[in-house]
């Protein structure tokens, strides 16, 4: 088990370094922050002074080494716009993003898993076909299309809900539904497939032949084994919620981390963008690392290997 976790931790570390390196290089190839922030009409002397002050006049490999040295010392730099600490700028937006992502994740799990299980237990019925139609629709529809449809129906035509801002809890309903619908659809689809695969295994028939009730067979045997691939999907979804908030927060003008990322990229605020990307990468890696641990605990093969190693 320790070797298993060590391998996953090493992969996670390499993934974070690769993502941050890619963003670091792309940001510096996409334009000169000094020109964007100072303006095209700024005197050349002022632009050069800005580059010198922020270390942009140094070779990119020197900037790269300085950036990683700063990361290990806990300093991600200051915002080029207002001089504030980049981490503080990002952290003040985190509560707004969590106000969307946490309910959306609960919506994903609370609807997706029960719908997938119910559809698998009632295969080829009208309910099963309805769940699958909704699952395919939610999986195939881009989040910005769904967001605009929800705004058109519930804000423009019906006037029930606000379309943008963060004035009250009503403003969060449409963004949460937008983020939750696609995830619930994906989870329902994978849960149904996992349940159908497990229900066709021989040990399910053996458990039924021993006289166990169908509900006991489902709860004690089917669900636990179907949870292995389902937990993997949940990990990807949990890590991707923060990244997915970029589109949703932009459509609904929600002042969270996602909207801050869009604004910071357009402003070439390098330190803030790098802090956000690092946070997203760490969130996804941490979620997948937890999934790897749960996968090892749920997988009977992994459990038997651990017991054999201890013996």
UniProtKB/TrEMBL annotation:
PROSITE patterns: ABC_TM1. It is found in: Cell membrane. Keywords: Cell membrane, Membrane, Transmembrane, Transmembrane helix, Transport. The keyword Chaperone does not apply. CDD domains: TM_PBP2. The chain crosses the membrane at residues 12-31, 98-121, 133-156, 168-188, 230-252, 272-298. Belongs to the binding-protein-dependent transport system permease family. It holds the Pfam family BPD_transp_1_N. Residues 94-291 form the ABC transmembrane type-1 domain. SUPFAM superfamilies: MetI-like. This is ABC transporter permease. The keyword Cell membrane applies. It is a multi-pass membrane protein. One of its GO terms (molecular function) is dipeptide transmembrane transporter activity. GO terms for cellular component: plasma membrane. Its main location: membrane.
């Amino acid at each position: 088990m320790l070797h298993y976790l060590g391998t996953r931790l090493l992969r996670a570390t390499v993934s974070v370094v690769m993502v941050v390196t890619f963003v670091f290089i792309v940001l510096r190839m996409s334009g000169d922050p000094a020109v964007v922030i100072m303006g095209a009409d700024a005197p050349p002397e002022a632009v050069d002074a800005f580059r010198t002050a922020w270390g942009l006049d140094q070779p990119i490999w020197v900037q790269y080494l300085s950036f990683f040295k700063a990361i290990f010392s806990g300093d991600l730099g200051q915002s080029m716009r207002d001089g504030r600490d980049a981490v503080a700028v990002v952290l003040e937006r985190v509560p707004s993003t969590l106000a969307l992502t946490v309910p959306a994740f609960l919506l994903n799990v609370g609807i997706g898993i029960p719908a997938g299980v119910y559809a698998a237990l009632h295969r080829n019925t009208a309910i099963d076909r309805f769940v699958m139609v909704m699952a395919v629709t939610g999986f195939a529809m881009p989040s910005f299309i769904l967001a605009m449809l929800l705004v058109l129906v519930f804000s423009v035509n019906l006037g029930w809900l606000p379309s943008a801002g963060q004035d009250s809890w009503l403003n969060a309903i449409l963004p949460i539904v937008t983020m939750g619908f696609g995830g619930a659809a994906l989870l329902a689809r994978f849960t149904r497939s996992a349940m159908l695969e497990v229900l066709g295994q021989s040990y399910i028939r053996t458990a039924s032949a021993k006289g166990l009730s169908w509900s006991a067979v489902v709860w004690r045997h089917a669900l636990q084994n179907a949870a292995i691939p389902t937990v993997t999907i949940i990990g990807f979804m949990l890590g991707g919620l923060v990244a997915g908030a970029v589109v949703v927060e932009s459509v609904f003008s929600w002042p969270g981390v996602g909207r801050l990322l869009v604004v910071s990229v357009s402003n070439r605020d390098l330190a803030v963008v790098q802090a956000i990307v690092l946070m997203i990468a760490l969130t996804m890696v941490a979620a997948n690392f937890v999934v790897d641990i749960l996968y090892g605990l749920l997988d009977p093969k992994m459990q038997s290997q651990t017991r054999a190693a201890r013996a």
